[in-house]
């Protein structure tokens, strides 16, 4: 067995894909998936499983691919993960399952994420329907606030247990960040839609365009439902608040990506939403959001530079996305910190004043602390700046839940099962942990659903 030679999935040519929003990776053919699956050692103590936040039987589903039994493989995957086509595309595998694979010591780890995606796509193409098994119908009602991965997972688990589930969502489409944040070229929206359709088949009632706290008060939900799950994410953008933030051309990544993804600005004028894009775009930040904003701007025809105050090693974005961004032509200006925006007389952005940085000792996050270098100021000319430096919780809704305890950063405090200080209110996902990952949000939704069942059956 050739241990070293990892079989990579097929990807579209960077020059061609940088001009459109179609998916970058085309995944594996059956043949390539089988070859990659055969590299797995089927370890007696599979370290990869320990690295997976939902403990998928990884050697189990890979073995079935190697044996060409794709439907069996899908069954195993689905037992642990309700959204494998999504996780196979967006999970940070290099720090989870693949990071823990023993083959790291001998060569390249098994491409677990790509195999997961292959099986999920194969099942979809072959119209393999998930079994709908609903336990005895129960006459208890649950409200879920927010249709992101945490809310949708909680809804699916509770509906399968026979509860009546209503999901309230602010936006016009369910999916949370999967719809409004992660672009089509990384996660096609048809995949999210399929998962949501399955929820509808389970009998989950999804109510769109209803911001809880505005259109409906939490008190009304508390009176009407036997339990509530809050999965509203942490979508309020953070700004650096440097001089000139009010200039035309300064965006938050959140607004920029929502316009493009949810409101389909990339299809303007076919869709009504425009997005202002200059010749030059500078994106500030080093996470997945920064990569997504930069690659979206590039596809709209701009010359794009990412500026980040540390070095590439400290960037929190997935390695694959940094690699894809570079291949497509996004430039990286590292060890650089913006200090003010410069505008013209009409109030339009024309440049960013920056300072060069060096790295000091590791800070609380374990990453080396960036320190400004004296007298190193310089200007980057640009018409558009997109800040992708993180998010905060939305205070409005939470303040309306009387007695709901928050932590010092404003996120909801829960016990390890997702129960909040109000006994019939549960919470999970980014609104509890701060910005995290899709799989962790799903895990939180699943855990809280289990606890809600116990709570209501007591
Ligand atoms: C641009 C971007 C790229 C990312 N890339 C990755 C990646 O590659 N891999 C990865 O694992 N993670 C990634 N993440 C992080 C990941 O998407 C989140 O951790 C995850 O979506 C959190 O799920 P959630 O259910 O907690 O919240 P969200 O996905 O934020 O969903 C919350 C939902 O609640 C709704 N809502 C909010 N307030 C209300 C209200 N008052 N009433 C009703 N509804 C409300 C929102 O509209 C939203 O639909 C990325 C995040 C961003 C922003
Ligand atoms: S650790 Fe790697 S080689 Fe071992 S079972 Fe898991 S995926 Fe296969």
From TrEMBL:
<dbReference type="Pfam" id="PF14691">
    <property type="entry name" value="Fer4_20"/>
</dbReference>
<dbReference type="InterPro" id="IPR023753">
    <property type="entry name" value="FAD/NAD-binding_dom"/>
</dbReference>
<dbReference type="InterPro" id="IPR009051">
    <property type="entry name" value="Helical_ferredxn"/>
</dbReference>
<dbReference type="InterPro" id="IPR028261">
    <property type="entry name" value="DPD_II"/>
</dbReference>
<feature type="domain" description="FAD/NAD(P)-binding">
    <location>
        <begin position="141"/>
        <end position="445"/>
    </location>
</feature>
<dbReference type="InterPro" id="IPR036188">
    <property type="entry name" value="FAD/NAD-bd_sf"/>
</dbReference>
<protein>
    <submittedName>
        <fullName>Dihydropyrimidine dehydrogenase</fullName>
    </submittedName>
</protein>
<dbReference type="InterPro" id="IPR006004">
    <property type="entry name" value="SudA-like"/>
</dbReference>
<dbReference type="Pfam" id="PF07992">
    <property type="entry name" value="Pyr_redox_2"/>
</dbReference>
<feature type="domain" description="Dihydroprymidine dehydrogenase">
    <location>
        <begin position="17"/>
        <end position="127"/>
    </location>
</feature>
């Amino acid at each position: 067995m050739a241990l070293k030679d990892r079989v990579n999935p097929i990807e579209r040519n960077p020059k061609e894909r940088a001009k459109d929003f179609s998916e970058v990776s085309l995944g594996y053919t059956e043949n390539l998936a089988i070859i990659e699956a055969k590299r797995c050692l089927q370890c007696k103590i599979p370290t990869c499983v320990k690295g997976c936040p939902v403990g998928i039987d990884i050697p189990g589903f890979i073995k079935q691919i190697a044996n060409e039994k794709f439907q069996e493989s899908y069954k195993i995957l689905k037992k642990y993960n309700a959204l494998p086509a999504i996780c196979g595309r967006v999970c940070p595998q290099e720090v989870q399952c693949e990071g823990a694979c023993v083959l790291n010591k001998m060569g390249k780890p098994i491409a677990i994420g790509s195999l997961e995606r292959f099986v999920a796509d194969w099942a979809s193409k072959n119209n393999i329907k998930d079994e709908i098994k609903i336990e005895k119908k129960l006459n208890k009602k649950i409200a879920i606030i927010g249709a992101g991965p945490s809310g949708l997972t909680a809804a699916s688990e509770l509906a399968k247990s026979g509860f009546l589930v209503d999901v309230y969502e602010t936006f016009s489409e369910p999916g949370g960040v999967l719809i409004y944040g992660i672009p089509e070229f990384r996660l096609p929206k048809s995949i999210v839609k399929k998962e949501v359709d399955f929820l509808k088949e389970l009998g989950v009632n999804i109510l769109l365009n209803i911001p809880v706290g505005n259109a409906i008060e939490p008190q009304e939900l508390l009176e009407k439902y036997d339990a509530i799950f809050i999965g509203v994410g942490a979508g309020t953008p953070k700004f650096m608040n440097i001089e000139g933030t009010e200039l035309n051309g300064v965006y938050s990544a959140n607004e920029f990506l929502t316009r493009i993804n949810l409101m389909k600005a990339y299809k303007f004028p076919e869709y009504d939403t425009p997005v202002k894009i200059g010749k030059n775009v500078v994106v500030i930040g080093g996470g997945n959001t920064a990569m997504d904003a930069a690659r979206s701007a590039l596809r709209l025809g701009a010359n794009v530079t990412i500026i980040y105050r540390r070095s590439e090693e400290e960037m929190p974005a997935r390695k694959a996305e940094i690699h894809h961004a570079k291949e497509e032509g996004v430039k990286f200006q590292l060890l650089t910190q913006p200090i003010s925006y410069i505008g013209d007389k009409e109030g339009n952005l024309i440049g960013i004043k920056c300072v060069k940085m060096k790295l000091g000792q590791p800070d609380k996050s374990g990453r080396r602390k960036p320190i400004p270098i004296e007298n190193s100021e310089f200007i980057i000319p640009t018409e558009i700046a997109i800040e992708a430096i993180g998010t905060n919780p939305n205070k409005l809704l939470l303040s309306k839940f009387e007695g709901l305890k928050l932590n010092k950063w404003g996120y909801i405090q829960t016990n390890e099962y997702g129960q909040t200080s109000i006994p019939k209110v549960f919470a999970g996902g980014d609104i509890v942990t701060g910005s995290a990952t899709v799989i962790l949000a799903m895990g939180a939704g699943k855990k809280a659903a289990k606890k809600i069942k116990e709570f209501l059956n007591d």
